[in-house]
TrEMBL record:
InterPro entries attached to this UniProt entry: Sugar_Epim/Isomerase, Xyl_isomerase-like_sf, Xyl_isomerase-like_TIM-brl
GO biological process, one term: glyoxylate metabolic process
Stated name of the protein: Xylose isomerase-like TIM barrel domain-containing protein
Domain Xylose isomerase-like TIM barrel, residue spans: 12-160
Keywords: Isomerase
Length: 163
């Protein structure tokens, strides 16, 4: 279950942001513990604040990783959205290598328009899939993109990549 972080109010002071972080840490710790009793994995996702959600509280991938490490709960993982990581940090190969032990779910979309993960964008998805395979990722990969047309037409990339 993705635990959303919410928005930073306009004009929030540094002190207010510190209080927000304390509340966020308390809330995700509680949620991770509570969800574990139901067998539901708790996920946090850094969402880019440059394009998708301005003022999103958790927008930097490294901060998401720090939070997961700080909370140190076996039922709290990162939702690693390749689209957001590329926009906020780039360096996808190294980030996948560093973050994967803390990842509970991978999502993808093409940059810059959050389209299908084909070749009409910044990310070379056949290469990204090979990195995930090489590192032993065996979880699901979610598709969170804006299709250009019909769903069936938007899945041709999947067949072209032999998946």
């Amino acid at each position: 279950m993705h635990i959303m972080a919410g928005l930073i109010p306009e004009g929030a002071s540094a002190t207010e942001k510190e209080k927000m972080m304390t509340t966020y840490l308390d809330n995700i710790t509680y949620a991770a513990d509570r969800l574990s009793r139901e067998g539901i994995l708790a996920l946090i996702e850094p969402v880019n604040n440059r394009i998708s959600v301005p003022r999103y509280f958790l927008s930097v991938p490294s901060e998401g990783l720090e939070i997961v490490k700080k909370v140190n709960h076996p039922n709290l993982k990162l939702q690693f959205d390749i689209f957001h990581v590329q926009i906020m940090d780039g360096n996808l190969t190294k980030n996948i290598q560093n973050y994967l032990p803390y990842v509970g779910h991978v999502q993808l979309a093409q940059v810059p328009d959050r389209g299908e993960p084909d070749n009409s964008g910044e990310i070379n998805f056949p290469y990204i899939f090979s990195v995930l395979d090489k590192l032993g990722y065996d979880g699901y990969i979610g598709l969170e993109y804006k299709p250009r047309g019909k769903t069936e037409d938007g899945l041709t990339w999947f067949k072209e990549l032999n998946y």
